[in-house]
Write a structure and sequence with these properties.
Length: about 240
């Protein structure tokens, strides 16, 4: 994928989340299995980096369920970071938020010399254009892990739902020629409080294992959860290869 197409896709998604930040945040609850499914894997007192934290709902959940957690959230959308910071003022756990774009090289520089027990990145990788950038982002996460640290991630399996398949629209709506894209790239619409368009890549289990191998990680386990159908997110726990 060429750089011009990458930038168009990144801009498309950034504009979507900036426009629909509050509506999107309101649609994601703390009881959502696409969030709560990872709780059994995170102990109290862990150091957690939430990559693509959105409105910081993981911080709210950890505050309720995992006392003593040290939480850091990063996201590229300032509107979402503002929501996250506002909510965090009432929490007991330690929180810190940074506006960082993980699609950019060296996004992890502010954390050099810091290590995390768990890096959580939920519904994020499928919004990063190109295998190359997805692998680079995951590689930088791996470098921030403490010894025996783990990455917990999820990717959206939208093709497994007839309901979500109906959201797929033609690339002409975004002014991007299909031949500039990679296999598995899709354009999905949003119709709540207005209409928006999002770039999504289908990261299935085969690609997930390829990304892990490229990033110095190994797949410990995978499972499915979330969505009305109960299986619309592919979750994975990744271990750092020592």
């Amino acid at each position: 994928m060429d750089e011009n197409t990458v930038e168009k896709l990144l801009t498309l998604n950034h504009e979507f989340y900036a426009t629909f930040a509050e509506l999107f945040a309101d649609s994601r609850t703390l009881s959502d299995p696409a969030l709560t499914s990872i709780l059994p894997y995170i102990p109290a007192g862990a150091r957690v980096l939430d990559v693509g934290c959105g409105n910081g709902r993981l911080a709210l959940l950890l505050d309720q369920e995992r006392p003593g957690t040290a939480y850091v959230g990063v996201d590229a959308v300032p509107e979402l970071i503002e929501v996250a910071r506002a909510q965090a003022g009432q929490l007991d756990i330690s929180t810190d938020f940074h506006m960082l774009d993980i699609s950019r090289p060296d996004w992890s520089d502010p954390f050099r010399g810091v290590s995390f027990d768990y890096i959580v990145t939920l519904a994020v990788l499928h919004h990063i254009p190109s295998f190359r950038l997805r692998a680079r982002a995951l590689r930088e996460m791996a470098e921030l892990l403490a010894p025996r640290g783990r990455v917990l991630l999820s990717t959206w399996q939208f093709l497994d739902s007839d309901r979500l398949r109906r959201k797929i629209v033609d690339w002409t709506e975004a002014g991007i020629p299909p031949q500039a894209l990679e296999p598995g790239d899709y354009l999905l619409d949003w119709n709540r409080g207005g209409r928006g368009l999002r770039y999504c890549h289908l990261v299935g289990e085969t690609e997930l294992r390829q990304l892990a191998a490229e990033s110095g990680l190994s797949v410990r386990t995978t499972f499915r959860a979330g969505g009305r159908e109960g299986n619309l997110s592919l979750f994975a726990m990744l271990d750092k290869v020592e």
